[in-house]
């Protein structure tokens, strides 16, 4: 009986322990010192910056105003006003951008807007295509750093994409900012220490133009960026991380906007884990594609809140089984997982999160995870599979 329970519970617990181990390694490596690399001193390639926008008239000009000064002669700045019912197109033209308008009620989603814009650019194609979302700001030298690394490596390149908590935000948004930092800064930085690829993040992405036929842009996929990165890697073009190019945006202030945003991200991520991760693991091992294996292992790490909930439930269940039946292996595995996850979060906070959230506030994180249970139950009962725009604060 004890042997049976050890195997019955030990195997799934070992599976849960795998993403914890991946996360621990990534955070540990991210904290290692790194030598800054000088930017190549040569002319950068000709670029086109593509900005997909759906009803973004209130913010589109601020985005374009931070991009336009970084353009050089021959570059293009294109806004795709996608299924807009406001004056996004007029505001973008007033800000000096080239604008195309798309209207298709059946094909909704960012992927379709990107495909529409790329086909428009094809008549005078750039060397590098850079995608920036309409609600983002970029740092000085963003285009140059991203374009040069992309063309020199011949691979898709992802900028550091961070989301900030608006001033006066509550505790849950501060925790969300810390979790975002771990996901988009710490984890890809750790993998990059080993020369491994990162996931694409939707904004701040650069592609060598001639490589675009390797993937299908036109898609209503709920997490089209995640899918694009994996497809590029399968084609021998694993994305690489460029932390010196920074793109930032803000979490919505409204609860409705936050809920919509989180549901899209997390349901999409979980859907890819369940639907694609097993076959990606098999494919990467069969083809000995270690870059794809690294991206798949990274994909297997669920949102921190869900990982905390799964591990907490496993911990309670395994210790209950130990007390009732004497099966010790599941309790040992779960205990190791809990300790490792706590160490990982503390290490990430100590090196990357002090400016984001106080340690006392971090102690609230388990309760924050409990409040997200309805979101994860919603994935089981009524999974979101279509792209839905997050509600803006002025909507």
UniProtKB/TrEMBL annotation:
Q: Which UniProt keywords apply?
A: Cell inner membrane, Cell membrane, Glycosyltransferase, Membrane, Transferase, Transmembrane, Transmembrane helix
Q: Known CDD domains for this protein?
A: EpsO_like (cd06438)
Cite the Gene3D superfamilies for this sequence. Answer: Spore Coat Polysaccharide Biosynthesis Protein SpsA, Chain A
Q: Does the keyword Cell membrane apply?
A: yes
Q: Which domain of life is it from?
A: Bacteria
Q: Keyword 4Fe-4S: yes or no?
A: no
- List the transmembrane segments: 12-34, 297-321, 327-349, 356-377
Q: Where does the record place the Glycosyltransferase 2-like domain?
A: 49-147, 193-343
Gene Ontology MF terms in the entry: transferase activity
Against Pfam families, the record matches this protein to: Glyco_trans_2_3, Glycos_transf_2
What family does the Swiss-Prot or TrEMBL record give for this protein?
Belongs to the glycosyltransferase 2 family.
Tell me the protein's name.
Glycosyl transferase
Q: What is the species of this protein?
A: Pseudomonas umsongensis
């Amino acid at each position: 009986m004890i042997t049976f329970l050890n195997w019955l519970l030990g195997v799934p617990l070992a599976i849960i322990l795998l993403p914890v181990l991946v996360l621990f390694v990534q955070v540990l490596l991210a904290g290692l010192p790194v030598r800054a690399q000088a930017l190549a001193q040569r002319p950068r390639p000709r670029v086109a910056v593509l900005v997909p926008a759906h009803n973004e008239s209130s913010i589109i000009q601020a985005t374009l105003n931070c991009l336009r000064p970084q353009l050089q002669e021959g570059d293009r700045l294109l806004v795709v006003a996608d299924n807009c019912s406001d004056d996004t197109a007029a505001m973008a033209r007033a800000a000096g951008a080239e604008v195309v308008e798309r209207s298709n009620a059946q094909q909704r989603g960012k992927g379709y807007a990107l495909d529409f814009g790329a086909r428009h650019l094809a008549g005078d194609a750039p060397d590098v295509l850079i995608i920036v979302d309409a609600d983002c700001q970029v740092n000085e030298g963003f285009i140059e750093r991203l374009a040069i690394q992309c063309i020199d490596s011949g691979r898709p390149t992802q900028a550091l994409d961070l989301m900030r908590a608006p001033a006066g935000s509550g505790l849950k948004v501060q925790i969300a900012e810390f979790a975002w930092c771990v996901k988009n800064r710490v984890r890809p930085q750790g993998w990059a220490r080993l020369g491994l690829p990162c996931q694409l993040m939707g904004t701040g992405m650069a592609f060598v133009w001639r490589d675009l036929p390797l993937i299908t842009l036109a898609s209503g996929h709920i997490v089209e960026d995640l899918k694009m990165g994996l497809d590029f890697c399968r084609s021998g073009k694993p994305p690489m991380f460029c932390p010196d190019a920074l793109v930032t945006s803000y979490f919505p202030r409204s609860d409705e906007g936050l809920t919509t945003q989180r549901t899209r991200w997390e349901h999409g991520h979980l859907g890819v884990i369940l639907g694609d991760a097993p076959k990606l693991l098999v494919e990467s091992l069969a083809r000995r594609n270690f870059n794809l294996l690294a991206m798949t292992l990274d994909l297997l790490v669920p949102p921190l809140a869900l990982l905390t909930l799964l591990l907490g439930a496993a911990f309670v269940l395994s210790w209950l089984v130990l007390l009732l039946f004497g099966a010790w292996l599941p309790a040992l595995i779960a205990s190791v997982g809990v300790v490792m996850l706590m160490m990982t979060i503390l290490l990430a906070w100590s090196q990357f999160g002090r400016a984001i959230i106080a340690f006392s506030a971090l102690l609230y994180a388990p309760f924050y995870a409990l409040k997200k249970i309805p979101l994860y139950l919603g994935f089981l009962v009524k999974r979101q599979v279509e792209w839905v725009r997050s509600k803006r604060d002025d909507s």
